[in-house]
Amino acid sequence: MIEVKDLRKVFDNGFEALKKVNFTIENGDLVCLLGPSGCGKTTILNLIAGLLDPTEGNIINDGVTMVDKHPKDRDIGFVFQNYALYPHMTVLENVMFPLRVGEKKIPKEEAEKIARKFMELTSIEELENKKPGTMSGGQQQRVAITRALVQNPNILLLDEPLSNLDARLRLKIREEIRRLVKEVGITTIFVTHDQEEALSISDKIVLMDEGVIQQHDDPQNLYLEPKNLFVAKFIGNPVINILPIEVSNGKIISDAFSFDVKNLVDTRFKETLTEGKYLLGVRPEDVLVSKDSTTFTANVESVELIGRERILNFAIGATNSKSIVSIDEEVYEGDTISCDFNYPRVFIFKETGERVY
Ligand SMILES: Nc1ncnc2c1ncn2[C@@H]1O[C@H](COP(=O)(O)OP(=O)(O)OP(=O)(O)O)[C@@H](O)[C@H]1O
Ligand SMILES: [Mg+2]
């Protein structure tokens, strides 16, 4: 188990990149560190790997403190965004390299054998004699991952390993990475700013913003039960609709609709919905379009077809909004639609971002 405790990082220029970050990772889990550019993802990886020293806090792996260990003694494999292969070496030499240096150096034949075993696992055997400059980005990244695994590290750190690859290859290699790390059973931290990538491969996601963890959860919970407005907006594509509302006299009122608070079937938070201003969050798939709906009508400004679904763009009052409907719903640009919300699946946030329903 990796325990990150009260981890804080202030850089020399005084910038606080991490503000007391706490999380734990179970052995063998694949965890994504997710968040927008600059939120501190790489800083966390660098602290775990020992490439940076923390200002405060601790990192403990299976009960052993890591922060005062030399990077070499931390038993970590690190894969960077830009492959970082040795250009003058062949693939086999690149993969063997970690086994042929330092105190734990092993004989050449043995190193070759281990390297070949892992190259088979990542399907790069045929590339054995190639040099990095002659290979595609996807091939180079496979080599980099193989080189990280060959030392049999305790932890694998991957910093946006797919961001230089085209969209189709990214899908393919992310599936391969998941299969591979599960096969090897290695604890893996995968950094990405792509929410869809994180949702698709993770056991758990740590979602960060500005050096603070916003939610550490199962992928599904991040989507279904966002803790705050930031999480709701960061997870999901198309992005969630956020509508300004006011709660007054048992009604939820906006510039386009009004409905009874009673419509919110889930009674858990009802009493906390005191009168005042809030933000209503509705995912595009929870804006239901039908003939006999009552909540509001809207004029469809544009329609995007994405495979089996259509994304409808329209205004709810003054707010640009989206609905996602099946291709079977024959809705076109210029149509007037009647809409309802899928009430149990709406969220209500305070204007400060805290979720109250
Ligand atoms: N050596 C440094 N000195 C000062 N500030 C730094 C230093 N390194 C990083 N930062 C700042 O710390 C913050 C976190 O950086 P970090 O590289 O961890 O972000 P990130 O989440 O990995 O972003 P990206 O998705 O762009 O890679 C950023 O605002 C960055 O500008
Ligand atoms: Mg980064």
Describe this structure in words.
Helix content is 22%, strand content 34%. It has 357 residues and is of the alpha+beta class. Helix 3 packs across helix 4. It is built from 8 helices and 20 strands. Strand 9 and strand 10 form a beta hairpin. The mean pLDDT is 93. It folds into 2 domains: 233 residues, P-loop containing nucleotide triphosphate hydrolases (Rossmann fold), CATH 3.40.50; 110 residues, Nucleic acid-binding proteins (OB fold (Dihydrolipoamide Acetyltransferase, E2P), Beta Barrel). Magnesium ion (MG) binds next to helix 1.
Number of strands: 20
Strand order within the widest beta sheet? 6-7-8-3-9-10
| Number of helical segments with 4 or more residues | 8
Shape: elongated
What pattern of helices and strands is seen along the backbone? EEEHEEEHHHEHEHEEHHEEEEEEEEEE
Query: What's the level 1 CATH class of the largest domain?
Result: Alpha Beta
Strand content range: 25-35%
Q: Structural class, from secondary structure content?
A: alpha+beta
Number of domains: 2
* Nearest-integer average pLDDT: 93
Distance between the termini: 34 Å
CA-atom Rg in angstroms: 25 Å
CATH fold-level label of the largest domain: Rossmann fold
Q: Provide the list of bound ligands, each named once.
A: adenosine-5'-triphosphate, magnesium ion
In CATH terms, the superfamily of the largest domain is P-loop containing nucleotide triphosphate hydrolases
Low-confidence residue ranges: none
Helix content: 10-25%
